[in-house]
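Structure tokens please, single chain.
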Amino acid sequence: MKYIFIVNPISGGKSKTKLIQYLNEFCLSNRLDFVVKHTQYAGHAKEIAKQYFDSEYTVVIAVGGDGTVNEVASSLIGSRCIFHVIPCGSGNGFARHNRILLDYKENLSAMLGLTTFKYVDTCFLNDIPFFNVSGIGFDAYISQKFSEIKGRGFINYIRAVIMYYRKESDHRVVLKLDEREISGNAFFISFANTSQFGNNVHIAPEACNDDGLVDVVVVTKIPIYLMPLVAFSLFTKKKINSRYVKYYRTNMIGVSCEPISVHVDGEPLGETCSYIKVVVNPLSLKILA
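Here you go.
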């Protein structure tokens, strides 16, 4: 088995020096056939991973956060090689959902004992692949603002939410799914292939990334006084029991709306859209199991 480590040196805002040193020592001491590649610009991880698309008996490992996961996995949909993650981002939603060890030393040790793989679903938002949670509206707007401020991490994300929450309002949307058309308002809509944004914040507690379906969570603006209840549900992996939140499950959905912010696996798209189509590509990515 050959191991390709694709490292994002700036993911999570933390130095990777000790990780890379340990990674090299570990692979050498265990006589692994391995290569370590460092990304140098946005999209570079995708380019590197694409080189190994047809490589059998190869594990391609994203060393970074959910943005790095997205880039690497995007090039491996339908590939013969196997995908794995050493998570070191801000939220690590994909890794947490798939029970991938967060500690890199434990992760590497466990990786040696994993000789089988399983298939998981991938999703596409307007033909852009995603693997965790994507969305439109307020959370996408916050993703953009979060990318503009200094410092990463959960606390800074919460600060951004508090700063902009009162300023934003609902959007008028029309949802088309399962031969139904649903009109209404939405503060944000999440399209969840996995259950959580990251940091164990579960926006779609029942989401499963091997069922051929995407969980759609439509949220209208929630009064401030209900936020403790919402936070409790998010962190205890329970559905939010409120008239402000609706859940759907489908293999395809279209959303028409006024121009709205969009994020893909937590990364802002950089442009607004007035139509969003999300489809599921069932069992199309091989991951270590």
